Amino acid sequence: MADSALRLWKDLPYDVLTEIARLLPCRVDRLGMSKTCHDWWLAAERLQPPRQLPWLLLPDTTTSPMNIRRTDHHMLINLHTNRRLFLPDCVYYVSPVGGAILNPVSTTILVATFSSPPGQDTQCFGAAIIDSTWGVCRPQLAFWSMEVAGDCRPVAMGFMKILCEPWSRPEDVIYHRGAFHFLTDAEHVVVYDIFKLQEVEEGRGICLRIGARHHEYLKQGVPRSSTSVMARYLMESRGELLMVVRYLGNSPTWFPHTGGFQVYQATQLPTGAGQVQLAWTELHSLDGRMLFLARGCSRSYEVVDFPGSAFGEGIYFLDDRKSYDIDMVSLAAHAAPRRWYTCSDNGMCRWVQGDPRLQVFRRWFTNKQHSDYSPPIWCIP
After folding, report:
1. Are residues 237 and 200 in the same domain?
2. Which has the closest alpha carbon to 154: 119, 192, 179?
3. Maximum distance among all alpha carbons in the chain?
4. Which residues form the KIB1-4 beta-propeller domain (predicted)?
């Protein structure tokens, strides 16, 4: 009887076995399937590995990983290959008077992104929101080439002005449609195109020829008070530009946590003059999306592309309350000697349609203590 039952499982058509394997996104489950018999092993092995969603990585909050002083350099590490690439520690500023290249100043990278995957045989540029020690009270912008990053530390070109209101500050940056897009706290977007590299005098690094465009966006919908905004994120979804606004919840001021989200899509509205006005139009449904939020690297995924996954439509967030705190992440000597990254505001927000629309939260690791070396991060496959 047992042999007969096993033979029935073994004799399943190959397309059925392939479908079973396809519905097992977890590698551990596929390993268990492959141990059933030879035919099942073939079906599991021949199928392409399933696409992976980001993993939430939390720091060990009981102790620091190394009992040494904190680093004063920037580095990019590929966790898959362990390859390390240098990132800028200094920026050259272009003087607003005469265009002369000023001496380099040390800087701290707060948010960074790239025009293409670094380390490949393609031209790659980096862009960042930075904080320098040059008497600047708000973050500035920097750009650099990753051409030499495998051998030595690249030098970035910094900018004092961002074509925005003097009191505004950039909050996020992504690479979208061939250009770097910076989102400000006024919810406007500044677009920078890098045209080419220009070598300058020896020892002074490179100069990037850059074009900039400033886009002011009207906001459609009824946003909450700006005083309740925790963070703003830019991301690309279905080829379009999205802005996600994260709001404070009803929590004590000394321990704020996430209370809600609004999602906007960049649209063009016709004007009476025959031109168009850029606008943020609120989305009232995620329409099958999974949005993973993180400054510089937010991602949008489609639920239908992950059959069998335990994750569904929603907004996935991690605790980044301190990751944009200049005093917290600064590498400068004047910074506080001890970091204090919060790690307890992580989870998923699901929208339930109705009047009014409900936002249902599933929170993770709410009792996680602070870390003195890293905030939570997404590991993006």
Report:
1. no
2. 119
3. 90
4. 55-325
| DSSP state for residue 340 in the 8-state scheme | -
Start-to-end CA span in the chain (Å): 45
pLDDT of residue 202: 45
Give CA–CA dist 59/55, Å, rounded: 13
325 conformational bin, left if phi > 0, alpha if psi -120 to 50, beta if neither:
beta
Work out the percent of the chain whose per-residue pLDDT is above 90: 32
Residues in the chain: 381
Which carries the bigger pLDDT value, residue 204 or residue 53? 53
Q: Is 115 helix (H, G, I), strand (E, B) or coil?
A: coil
Q: Distance (Å, rounded) from C-alpha 245 to C-alpha 224? A: 10
Residue 332: domain span:
55-64+217-379
- With cut-offs at 50, 70 and 90, classify the pLDDT of residue 162: low
189 and 182 in contact (C-beta within 8 Å)? yes
Element (H, E) at 377: strand 377-379
* Domain boundary residue, one of 191, 215, 239: 215
Q: Is residue 70 in some structural domain?
A: no
pLDDT at 296: 96
Q: How far is CA 14 from CA 11, 18, 37, 40, 171, in A?
A: 8, 6, 13, 9, 51
Which tens digits make up the pLDDT trace of 297-316? 999 999 999 877 788 999 99
Amino acid 263 reads V
β-strands 105-114, 90-93 pairing? antiparallel
Q: What average pLDDT does range 288-295 have in this prediction?
A: 97
Task: Show which of 215, 241, 258 is a domain's final residue.
Answer: 215
Residues near 156 by Cβ (< 8 Å), separated by ≥ 6? 88, 90, 91, 92, 107, 126, 128, 130, 142, 143, 144
Given a cut of 50, is residue 203 above it in pLDDT? no
**197 and 82 in a common domain:** yes
User: Are 19 and 112 found together in one domain?
Assistant: no
Residue 361's pLDDT is what? 96
Q: Per-residue pLDDT for 204 more than 70?
A: no
Look at residue 139 in the predicted model and tell me its pLDDT: 56
Does residue 281 share a domain with residue 211?
Answer: no
Exposed, middle or buried: residue 340 (CB in 10 Å: 0-12, 13-18, 19+)? exposed
Q: Which whole number is the average pLDDT over 269-298?
A: 89
